[in-house]
Amino acid sequence: MTATIDTGFTKAERTDVAQELTKVLADSFAVYMKTHGYHWNVRGPEFFSFHNLLEQQYRDMWAALDDIAERIRALGVVAPQGHATFANLTSIKDGDPDKEALEMLKELMKDHETLIATSRAAIEVADSASDEATVDLLTQRLAAHEKFAWMLRSTLGGR
Ligand SMILES: [Fe+2]
């Protein structure tokens, strides 16, 4: 038995929005993994503060992954799963455990800027489909990544 979907969207709208959410999910997963890895491997005199800052950020992103994937499901599209699948969906590179602490933070700041751009592009598509629930979720993700970029930028001495 097949249950049909009637949530007020056309199939094309659901597919288009889910595709944008999938990009945000893949970028978020990559930045989550890098942040957690740098939380483990960061070294130097600022260890404790960097280690804790990164923990705060990876915990937020970990929780968000579930919300984003479940929004894709609510749109009637399957969520991606598996390392290879995720790797193919993102342009964010793996972290390097031997990087200097400040270089790690700088790299993450840039990654959040990428996520800000990915989220904004996705919001535009969700908005044109009048998908308020997705716009709401992505607006929260946009604000989170702007905040994380600010925290990393300020830790590096920028405004
Ligand atoms: Fe930890």
From TrEMBL:
The superkingdom of the source organism is Bacteria
The record ties this protein, via Pfam families, to:
Ferritin
Q: Record keywords: Kinase included?
A: no
Residue ranges of every copy of the Ferritin/DPS domain listed in the record: 19-157
The record's GO molecular-function terms, alphabetically, read:
DNA binding; ferric iron binding; oxidoreductase activity, acting on metal ions
Entry keyword annotation includes Metal-binding: no
List keywords of the entry alphabetically.
DNA-binding
CDD domains, alphabetically?
A: DPS (cd01043)
Q: Which family does it belong to?
A: Belongs to the Dps family.
Name this polypeptide is given: Starvation-inducible DNA-binding protein
Taxonomic lineage per UniProt? Bacteria, Pseudomonadati, Pseudomonadota, Alphaproteobacteria, Caulobacterales
